Amino acid sequence: MKLYEYMGKDLFTRYGINVPRGKMVTSPDEAFAAAAEINAPVVIKSQVLAGKRGKGGGIKFADTPEEAREAAAALLGMDLRGYRVDILLVEEKIKIDKELYISITIDGSAKRPVMIASAEGGMDIEEVPEEKIIKEHIDLDIGIMPFLAREVARRLGLKDSLAKDFYRLLPAMYRLFREKDAELVEINPLVISGDRLIAADSKITIDDYALYRQKDVPFVEDKTVLERKAKEIGVSFVELNGDIAIMANGAGMSMGTLDTIAYYGGSPANFLDCGGGTGLEETAKALELLLETNPRVIFINIFGGITRCDDVAGAFVKVKKSMDIPVPVVIRLVGTNEEAGRRILEEEGISAYTFMNEAAEKAVELARADK
Hints:
3 domains; four-stranded antiparallel β-sheet; Dna Ligase, domain 1; D-amino Acid Aminotransferase, Chain A, domain 1; six-stranded antiparallel β-sheet; Rossmann fold; alpha+beta
């Protein structure tokens, strides 16, 4: 479970990690009051569980409380990367001398925590060259030893009071990581502001299976509008940023379909696993959901087992007759009642592929042709 930035910063404060003065608000008037209380230029940040908020227009600056109210009015209610903005964080605008990156997460291969740091903060860690990344595994029986904090501080170029700040910060992050059953505790950027280190952002993910013992951590629903609709339908759905909508049956088949689309140079718009035994009505609703991703192409990839090919074909025909499908559809059917499914489609002038690679390549070709 991901936490909102303001929730993460509240935890940081409890663990002695410096954060900017700020307040969570839900209305323009509350933003005005918060800015007046801070009595300095402020940043108004949309609180959504998505990255790159600044590039999406989800962060604004204000020099006065009135400007803060206007900024809040513009941000509240907007759609930001699939999330509706209902909460804002108003916090002081801090002086930034340099941006660093620091996180603690789980290394699945090593089966233990790993600390990741870089002097190249302010961007996704995946974009930082490997030679500029510091990685140190943490022994669960020992934890963060003082020598590790000193070594990382040295490699980050921190000296004097900044180094002392870091000696306190790293063990505090690790205590939070362990005590809150976190999968990720990330500060990006960790800002050098004068003689202080300040966590300008927070990203914390709590292990879902440990939530029962984290009574003081509020529950956060980490789903977009479409993902909530999918939950109501009863299908597994994750919204992505591509333009080829995908429906498959089974998690493995769905992941394989995403990989095959990517192999041919395409970009998936979603992960949708319609599962085994999904009925005609649920399948029809899942197809309608795909259309809401505004794709260039829909790719239906069914290996019939419990999910029968004729049910999927019938559901597609039902949707096609009931509503306009403004984009090309590529269908691959193999397995249970395959021939019956093909006949249903052929009666509507639709052909189905047998091999996934051929169907995926066609879907990518159609998506490119539409650009």
